[in-house]
Amino acid sequence: MSASIPVTYHGAFCYEICLEQDFKRLIEKLASIGCKRDQKVCIVADSNLEKLHLSALSDVVSAYFDVVISFCFPAGEASKTIDTVQKLYAKLIENQFDRHDLLLAFGGGVTGDLTGFAAATYLRGIDFVQIPTSLLSQVDSSIGGKTGVDFWQYKNMVGAFYQPRLVYMNLSLLHTLPANQFACGMGEIIKHACIKSADYFNWLKTHADDIRNRNPQILEEMIVKSCEIKRDVVERDPKEQGERALLNFGHTIGHAVEKLSAFQLLHGQCVGIGMAAACFLSCQFGRLTKEDCDAVLSLLRQFDLPVFADGLSDEDILLASRSDKKRIAGKIQFIVLDAIGHARIEPDLKDEQILTGIAFVSSCHTTKQENQIGEEP
Ligand code: GLY
Fold first, then answer.
1. Cross-strand bridge partners of residue 191
2. Alpha-carbon torsion 344, 164, 75, 216, what sign?
3. Is 317 helix (H, G, I), strand (E, B) or coil?
4. 141 burial via Cβ count (<10 Å: 0-12, 13-18, 19+)
5. CA atoms within 13 A on the CB side of 78
6. pLDDT at 374 over 50
7. Residue 198: other Cβ atoms inside 10 A
8. What is the pLDDT of residues 282-323, one digit of tens each?
9. Does the C-beta of 54 come closer than 6 Å to ligand 1?
10. Which of 70, 114, 200, 307 is deepest in the core (most CB within 10 A)?
11. For 63-167, where are the alpha helices, taking DSSP H only?
12. How many Cβ atoms are within 10 Å of 286's Cβ, its own excluded?
């Protein structure tokens, strides 16, 4: 089992997304993009990956490249800062990395985002390759060239669009992914289906058991489908001038919850909560039917994603949503669904309306068992 998805940038081939079951073809793929033995390589990984899989990757890479070093940092969103990037710059300078050398981002979204940002800025840009290991990074964050770090209380506030030279996945590593991290990836996957494909949404429902059991063939099929949706969007709108904003479905309230929970909840879990709120708003004030709204909530629950935020005040969530960077002229760019598979930007939602969606997912107003649609939240 293996697959390859080409990604173009402004119409020209830019990089390949390779889905493999091991690292056997990594060197061949690196050579195919022009990597030479005498390039220095720095593998960037967090403390979890360091324990579990760094030596396996390092052995493969060291068999080809003359100089391979690694840079490790404490796992978690709290490390996605300019401070961690500075430490990485220091490591590269100490080891005399120049513009021809290479960074490998080995891990989840935090690793990919901060390594990509370091690659975009070190010596005004050196090559980097994404080796995503979490489901979320495989289907979403490793594709499309968004790189960056959090700054003060703002998520992804400082960054750059900078494309990787290659995205290489060893899907067998998914078997060691903790259940909550797997659920986070499912959050982004359900997002892809909600915004772009009712067929894919139904496929996810039909294959839910196999997905939950991590059946390798079904996982590969699912990852290919999600990568293709993401690829198609970023090819049409690489710098988020329009359509790419649809990928932020669930993220406005999701980012607010993530910040307020002091990163106790993981990104994909917060996106689940944000999507539940956005579906409720789409149903109350837009065209989404109650049946479709229920179907999304039920799929989120089926994949162990929370659909309510515990112990946060509605006003605080609204305030944090307003400070999300995804605003134009001070207005929140809210993504709503007209139907499953059809999303659009809604720039004119009023605070009272957004508060209704927030109340739907906040513990102040909902029972922990069920969010009741059609009733006063
Ligand atoms: N994860 C959203 C995007 O890449 O645009």
1. none
2. positive
3. helix
4. buried
5. 8
6. no
7. 15
8. 999 999 999 999 999 999 999 999 999 888 899 999 999 887
9. no
10. 114
11. 82-94, 109-121, 135-136
12. 17
> Three-class SS of residue 145?
coil
The Å distance, Cα 251 to ligand 1 centre, comes to 10
List the residue whose alpha carbon is closest to atom 3 of ligand 1.
Answer: 247
Torsional class of 263: left (φ above 0), alpha (ψ -120 to 50), beta (otherwise): left
For residue 44, give both structure tokens: 């960037």
- Stated as kind and residue range, the H or E segment containing 73 is strand 67-73
CB atoms within 10 A of CB 196: 24
CB neighbours (10 Å) of residue 175?
10
One-letter amino acid of 322: R
Secondary structure class of 358 (helix, strand, coil): helix
Q: Residue 202 C-alpha to ligand 1 middle, in angstroms?
A: 23
Q: How far apart are CA 229 and CA 104, in angstroms?
A: 25
- CA-to-CA distance for 366 and 377, rounded, in angstroms? 7
d(C-alpha 292, C-alpha 362), whole Å: 21
Asked if residue 142 lies in contact with residue 132, where contact means CB atoms within 8 angstroms, the answer is: yes
- Tokens representing 156 are 């992804």
Identify residue 240 by its one-letter amino acid code: E
